[in-house]
Amino acid sequence: MFVIKKLSSKKARSNSLDFMFILKITVYLVLSTQWLYLQKTFGTYQIPIPVGALIALFLSFRERFRIDRKIEYVVIILAMFIGFLLPIGFTFNY
Asked: For 89, left (φ over 0), alpha (ψ -120 to 50), or beta?
């Protein structure tokens, strides 16, 4: 009886860790696609700044629940490039 309870608690903990990992990767993916585009008023040039990727990297550095940083960095970098190729983000005219 004791063995069954112990195994079920390990399984519940494993499911909780999986959920946290998927949630964390999803947050990094959504954040990293956000860009801030600084654009001249007449549209002569545009400066893209990966604000979301910088925030995601900051969260990755400050996090206590670290599973695998390499996977997090790959997700952040790939999402950053996808967000750059697609016009995702905010445009600020100055």
From this structure: left
Q: What is the pLDDT of residues 23-44, one digit of tens each?
A: 889 999 999 999 999 988 876 7
Question: What are 46's strand-pairing partners?
Answer: 39
What is d(CA 79, CA 63) in angstroms, rounded to the nearest whole number?
A: 19
Spell out the SS3 assignment of the chain.
CHHHHHHHHHHHHHHHHHHHHHHHHHHHHHHHCCEEEEECCCCCCEEEECHHHHHHHHHHHHCCCCCCHHHHHHHHHHHHHHHHHCCCEEEEEC
Which single residue is written with the structure tokens 């959504």? Answer: 30
Sequence letter at residue 40: K
Q: What's the domain count of the chain?
A: 1
Full domain range(s) for residue 51: 2-93
For the question of whether the overall pTM of this predicted structure is more than 0.70, the answer is yes
